[in-house]
Amino acid sequence: MNATTIQDKTSTLGGSRAGMSSVDLPRLAAALVIWALLLSAPFWLPLVGGYTVLGTRVLIFALVTLGLNLLLGFTGGLSFGHAAYFGLGAYGTGLMLKFVTASTPLAILVGVLVGGLAATLLGPITVRRKGIYFAMITIAIGQMFYFIAVRWNSLTGGEDGLTGFARTNVHFGGWTLDLHNPTNFYYFTLFFFAIGCFVVWMVLRSPLGHTFVAIRENPKRLRFLGLPIGVYIWIAFAISGFVAALAGSLYALLNNFTSPEDMNWILSGDFVIICVLGGMRTFWGPLVGSVIYVVVQDYLSSITVNWMSFIGAIFVLSVLFFPWGLLGFFQGRFKK
Amino acid sequence: MELLLFNIFNGLIIGIFYALMALGLSLILGLNGIINFSHGGFLALGGYIAYSLSPVIGFWGALIVSPFIVGLLGLVVERILIRPLYSRDPLFSLLLTFGLAMIMEDLIRTFWGANGLPFNVPAALSHPLSQTYFFVTGYRVFLVVLALLAIGSLFALLRYTRIGVRIRAGNADLETVSALGINIYRLRAINFGVGILFAGLAGVLAAGRLGLTPTMGASLIMPSFVAIIVGGVGSLLGSLLGGIIIGVAAGIVTTYYPAASDVVIYVIMAVVLVVRPRGLLGQEGLLE
């Protein structure tokens, strides 16, 4: 395998390789700035007209799209159904808190397992097809969960959504974390976002991650090399499913509510456009896209009833003029 | 027994809508290589335009004129928005039509209101045709006949006209068709217009049967995807068959276990994908 070209590609996308003599300074600086901004967000958000919950929502959307981007941007799998795993995580957590346990960590664990395992089990069906066919199948399978959530009234509350649960405080030995405080919940979410970032980053710099990028770039060649492409896409699908379920679980805790809209294909489309807006081939693209998307949607829905048209226009315009997203656009600028 | 018959008949009619929509989607998917998410938007637009036209030119006029207006609109959309994307990753056309669908739904809501509107069909069509089987109204029979006529003429068009032959040839190998001196941009534009025309027709027919709501297209598009997957990508006959199968299956399940009627079509799809991944009549390796 022509390893160097593949590694060159990922090092411009994911992060520099460990053990290399030169550290990619601009990239390191960017990461430090991003983390500093995220850690201090509750302090500066009110100053720029935001509020803490908005920051938490950005983090949750960034987490799910970070996972999705591993499949979409790095492996080249066009999934349009990730809201299903997001929603399964949300319902798993909500139902656990409502009926089984009062423990938030346990509810999160169950939510992540429900959504992640669903993605893992359904992966083999979807990865048998490629390209737009793959996209259609992921949408349709995702929509199946949506209709189950709508129709299974007695369990899920149907179209009105699942209510009657609330996040509880977390206890570590003698110390209690008060999650009802929005700022504390922001940091709670940030902690999971950091885990998600770490996992995706580790995957991307591992041989597995290089294989993902290679599959995106030249699947035929890898098949000739004897690699079971379907299995690798399945792994990417499963990882992104687990990450999406974690984000969904946090989303249910944030709102103390979840509805079938959290697993609708419209939301899946939103996830994809977030990746595209920020830059599909970049590590931080999903975070940038989430900031744009969440802030714009929050602002638009407060000033106009026609916010859907504006969001739709963002889709159309970004596809026509910014296909490689904001970060991709700037990277292209700097390279030239 | 009567209830079962009623639900099967209902399912058949819903299946016809799925099939009309799936055929248009399938045409566009084949030659233009695009999953047209905005298909549902065009369908709804067809219904709403017919609603606004029918006081002026009557039901029959609206039935004919509205699909063509929508088809022309489709041509404009294809020329301005879709054409630049042919050479790019399919992801982008997917996102573009997705955004377009949102805009169309929102505009419909702005112009015609968020609440459902009734679309009246001529009195001559709304009588039950049979005393025993109350559900066989003239409109439903008319709907089935008209849809079958439209589908029949589409197949005839593809089979016997020069443009139809070119469309089918383009499905098989667009590059060769282009090399033979055929303007494939015009061909794809025409193909897109025909697909949208079918969406518009389905919209007018659906308006008379299901009423008008801004989300009517969005709720029909997902089963149409399922119909295409079940029938097999690349086969128009498959899309027709898939639409009718899932419609009737949903109808039968409604009789015995109504809560599962939405889910059953996805179960059918999952089974087909496991047993026969290319779909009932699909070709292997298409669009991959």
UniProtKB/TrEMBL annotation, chain A:
Any one Gene Ontology molecular-function term assigned to this protein's record: branched-chain amino acid transmembrane transporter activity
UniProt source species: Salinisphaera hydrothermalis (strain C41B8)
Residue ranges crossing the lipid bilayer per the database entry: 28-47, 59-86, 106-125, 132-152, 185-204, 225-251, 271-295, 307-330
Localisation per UniProt entry: Cell inner membrane
Membrane topology field: Multi-pass membrane protein
Name listed for the protein in its UniProt record: Putative ABC transporter permease
GO cellular component: plasma membrane
PANTHER family according to UniProt: ABC TRANSPORTER ATP-BINDING PROTEIN, HIGH-AFFINITY BRANCHED-CHAIN AMINO ACID TRANSPORT SYSTEM PERMEASE
Swiss-Prot/TrEMBL keywords: Cell membrane, Membrane, Transmembrane, Transmembrane helix
Automatic annotation (TrEMBL), chain B:
N-terminal signal peptide: none
GO molecular function: transmembrane transporter activity
Cellular localization per UniProt: Cell inner membrane
Oxidoreductase keyword on record: no
Annotated TM spans: 6-27, 57-78, 90-112, 132-158, 189-210, 263-281
Membrane topology, from the record: Multi-pass membrane protein
GO BP term, example: amino acid transport
Keywords from the UniProt entry: Amino-acid transport, Cell membrane, Membrane, Transmembrane, Transmembrane helix, Transport
InterPro entries hit by this protein: ABC_transp_permease, BCAA_transport_permease
GO cellular component, one term: plasma membrane
Keyword Cell membrane: yes
Chief location of this protein within or outside the cell: membrane
Tree of life domain: Bacteria
Entry's family note: Belongs to the binding-protein-dependent transport system permease family. LivHM subfamily.
Alphabetized PANTHER family for the sequence: ABC TRANSPORTER ATP-BINDING PROTEIN, BRANCHED-CHAIN AMINO ACID TRANSPORT SYSTEM PERMEASE PROTEIN LIVH
Name this polypeptide is given: Inner-membrane translocator
